[in-house]
Amino acid sequence: MLFGLMAAALIGVGFMAQQHAAYTEPLAEILHVRLLLHLMRKPLWRFGIGAMVGGQILGALALRRAGVAQIEPLLATNLIFALAVSALVYQERLGRGEWLGAVLVSGGVAVFLASAQPRGGRVPHPTSLTWIAVLAVLVVTAGLVVVALRTGLKTRAMLLAAAAGVLYGLQDALTRGSLLTLQHGVHALVTAWPPYALPLVAVLGILLNQSAFDAAPLRISLPATTAAEPITGIVLGVAIFKEQLRVDVYALAGTVAGLVALVVGIVILGRSPFLVKSDAGRRDEDD
Q1: CB of 194 within 8 A of CB of 181?
Q2: Which pLDDT does position 79 carry in this prediction?
Q3: Partners of residue 258 on adjacent β-strands
Q4: For residues 262 and 125, what is the distance between their CA atoms, to the nearest angstrom?
Q5: What integer pLDDT is reported at residue 284 of this predicted model?
Q6: Residue 153 and residue 172: Cα distance in Å, rounded?
Q7: Distance between CA atoms of 143 and 67, rounded to whole angstroms?
Q8: CA 269 to CA 80: how far, in whole Å?
């Protein structure tokens, strides 16, 4: 739990820094590798990536000790930490909306974990059919990107951010699979495919996320990522690793209520004026 919350804090700070840097890049660079090459020259972006990598490392430590369905909801609290940092930077107090969103997000996480009580899990064989869930995730991601390219900037940003969140959920699942495989020895890890797919998925997720940050303000792009990642991770935890959730009537009601509260809280936090302030200095072609 502690590692998961610490990871969420670093990821939230990393997202804020990345968006401040990416939002000033030309729109023509969306979904192009040169966007990442240009961003690499910016100290603020490198700081943001460093913070996110630190969060991913802490997240991996959490996933080493607990299942994906247990850790993913905790990572969704990154938006709370991002807003807290913004409040400190701007030296202003959080308003009712931020507090309501924070209560819904944290309360939703607590209700989900208490109701679903996710537990167990094991790594399937590298050739197991359960890994077909990875293919399904990639198809969903590709579909979101294709639709995004045919829409306006704001909708494009939300769809690209959602696609990034889906890949981040997949990244967490692949991290969990790699860590479980490592328990069987280094040879087992080297001969399995998830460790090799992990960096590819991570880089693609970063490209989609930076493209979303480039297309629209943080209040539009970040909530979609924050909501898509835990939902994808929970589904993959159950589908691939056979993590168990309580399925009686009361548990299901609490699970659904917790997830709804989590998503609603994310949407409310995404409308915070603190995220609007990150739009300052936007390029002239968006005026």
Answers
A1: yes
A2: 82
A3: none
A4: 33
A5: 43
A6: 28
A7: 28
A8: 8
- Facing residues of 119 across strands? 244
| pLDDT, position 286 | 46
What tokens appear for 184 in the block? 């069987």
Measured distance CA(228)–CA(279) in Å, rounded: 23
Residue 57 has what pLDDT? 93
Q: Hey, is 18 helix, strand or coil?
A: helix
Our measurement of the distance from residue 78's CA atom to the centroid of its chain's CA atoms, rounded to an integer in Å, reads 9
DSSP 8-state secondary structure symbol assigned to residue 119: B
CA distance 22 to 17: 9
Number of alpha helices (DSSP H) and beta strands (DSSP E) in the chain: 13, 0
Closest CA to 225 of 268, 286, 167, 164: 164
Region 146-168 average pLDDT: 91
| Residue 165 and residue 229 in contact, taking contact as beta carbons nearer than 8 Å | yes
Question: What pLDDT band is residue 154 in, cutting at 50, 70 and 90?
Answer: confident
Query: How many other β-carbons are positioned within 10 Å of the β-carbon of residue 286?
Result: 12
> What is the rounded CA–CA span in Å between residue 182 and residue 161?
31
Please give the angle made by the CA atoms of 104, 174 and 39, to the nearest 5 degrees: 75
What's the token pair of residue 261?
Answer: 């509260």
Note the pLDDT of residue 287. Answer: 41
Q: What's residue 261's pLDDT?
A: 92
153 class by beta-carbon count within 10 Å (0-12 exposed, 13-18 middle, 19+ buried): middle
Per residue in 65-98, pLDDT (tens digit) is 888 888 988 988 888 888 887 777 767 777 788 8
Does residue 283 carry a pLDDT above 70? Answer: no
CA distance 189 to 180: 9
- Confidence tier at 278 by pLDDT (50, 70, 90): low
What type of residue is 60?
A
Q: Which residue has the tokens 């993590």?
A: 243
Mean pLDDT, to the nearest integer, of 116-124? Answer: 84
Scanning the structure block, which residue is given the tokens 């979303």? 212
